[in-house]
Amino acid sequence: MSLSNLQVGPAWPTEPASGRGRSHGTSSRQPFDRWFRYPAGFASDYVQLLLDRLELTEGMVIDCFAGSGVTGTAARARGLSFAGIEAHPFVAELARLKLTPTATAAQVRTLAREVATSARKAVLAELTTVDSEPDLIRRSFADHTLKALLVLRRLIKDRLEDPAALYLKWALLATLRDVADVKVGWPYQRPGVARKPPHDDPIARFDLRIQAVADDIESVSGSNVSYRPTSRVTSQITSKVLVGDSRDPNVWSQLPTSAAACIASPPYLNNFDYADATRLELYFWGDVSTWRDMCREVRGDMLTATTQQSSVREMAVAIARLKERADGSSGPVEEILRLVESITEAKLRRERRSKEYDQVAPAYFLAMWDVLQNLKDHLAPGGTALWLVGDSAPYGVYIDTPRLIGDIAVQIGFNLAEDVSLRVRGNRWGQHSDRHNVPLAERLIVLHKRVEETVG
Q1: What pLDDT score does 12 carry?
Q2: How many CA atoms lie within 13 A of 400 on its CB side?
Q3: What are phi and psi of 190, to 5 degrees?
Q4: How many CB atoms lie within 10 A of CB 51?
Q5: Residue 298's pLDDT is what?
């Protein structure tokens, strides 16, 4: 379906810009979003605008790329149930904490006071050493800062049986980038580039963060939604986050089959590595200590969207499976395969070794196909899916990712209702000498599950 044939409805809201704790992406100020600023998707206040636009008053919202639970907290604030799937096990834990509380605000504050008091005493005793920490961790913090962080980590790990301890864990992890004295912005940690840390007292910063967490827990205590006059307070509202691969129908089988809507932001085809982006926190907490561990323990179920995940074998398998799904017309499969050829040719023309984007593209679109098929099976007839996704241009070869996803969805059984450009993207890297000059945008595609007609 061409954009000229799209049905145009009332304007969809654009994401609020600066002044709310972020220029774009997860907010550092909005309740629950501020627990940990995961560099993916959107902020809950924007999801709430999308939910308002859908005029949902009941039912369940699904997010097949749940991330840190942004869609879930927004749905809860509107009196809606939520079900999410997230492949990054570390981040899925955070989403679950937000949506299925394990402790009260009072319990969190009590444990936080105990830990902060003990930490200050332990730091004064100067008994902590940093020698056994991974190189990335030792290089990212001044010694006195790292010692305080390690004391906090030890005290929290010693109390993990306490239902409030995981909240303290995430407050500590969110503190790391606040007190690092090297560049640790998204998406890369650069321990060789010094900076003045925004906050110089790790324990004080941790305490401030955990108080915000407790405040947010308290805001929903006694009800399943945050305090908002127009929200319906009902005991029927549920929230569920599964750790798993959204391509896998067995994971989806644990979710309800009649969701009213899906609001999601799938990984973009832009080589952003969500596993590596959290390496600082993963290494610090001790979940992994090597790149190999991270690939095995974290990246295992994450769909291919980066060159670090791709392989020649996966590319061949993806191309073969895409060809099996071609419908005989000049559809998305044919266009994807032509793009892969163009990317390969552009890569070979380059005078230096280049990243294998031609391996990523077929695996990426095959994954989107599988996810959309599963989503179709779990949306109610006529249900709406809103996907926020951007286009890309590896080596200057333009890939209209949102439209291709829309075309795949149409072949599966959706109607592509709208394809809306929300904002220009990619300017951040405009000065990079290896950067293409193809204009890029972030877009919202609006899909409706087709209502099958019955004969008889």
Answers
A1: 84
A2: 14
A3: -125, 80
A4: 21
A5: 87
Question: Which long-range contacts link 398-405 to residues 24+ away (Cβ below 8 Å)?
Answer: 398/438, 399/269, 399/339, 399/361, 401/268, 401/269, 402/443, 402/445, 403/3, 403/445, 404/332, 404/335, 404/336, 404/365, 405/266, 405/365, 405/368, 405/372, 405/445
In a domain, 325, yes or no: no
341 CB neighbour count, 10 Å cutoff:
12
Q: Do 15 and 159 fall into the same domain?
A: no
* Cα–Cα dist 181/361, whole Å: 37
Contact criterion met (CB below 8 Å) for 82 and 239: yes
- Of all residues in the chain, the percent with pLDDT exceeding 90 is 60
Tell whether pTM > 0.85: yes
Count Cα atoms within 13 angstroms, Cβ side, for 27. 21
Tokens representing residue 331 in the block: 């559809």
65 in a domain, yes or no?
A: yes
Residues 121 and 95 in one domain: no
What are the C-alpha distances in Å from 4 to residues 320, 428, 437? Answer: 32, 30, 26
Q: Is residue 191 part of a domain?
A: yes
Q: Does any domain span residue 322?
A: no
168 and 117 together in one domain: yes
In contact, 44 and 27? CB cutoff 8 Å: yes
Same domain? 286 vs 178: no
Q: Name the domain boundary from 219, 241, 270.
A: 219
What confidence category does residue 204 fall into, taking pLDDT thresholds of 50, 70 and 90? very high
What digits encode the pLDDT tens for the residues 123-135?
888 777 788 899 9
Q: Mean of the pLDDT values across residues 95-112? A: 96
Q: What are the CB-based long-range contacts (under 8 Å, 24+) for 149-157?
A: 149/175, 149/176, 149/179, 149/202, 149/284, 151/119, 151/122, 151/123, 152/115, 152/119, 152/202, 152/203, 152/206, 153/284, 153/285, 154/128, 155/115, 155/118, 155/119, 155/122, 156/115
Shared domain check, 272 and 126: no
pLDDT at residue 245, rounded to an integer:
95
Checking if the pLDDT of 318 tops 90, the result is: yes
219, 254, 281 - which closes a domain? 219
CB 90 within 8 A of CB 48: no
Domain residues for 158? 105-219
Position 222 scores a pLDDT of: 58
pLDDT of residue 114: 97
Six token digits for residue 16: 């609020």
Do 263 and 241 share a structural domain?
Answer: yes
Shared domain for 179 and 300, answered yes or no, is no
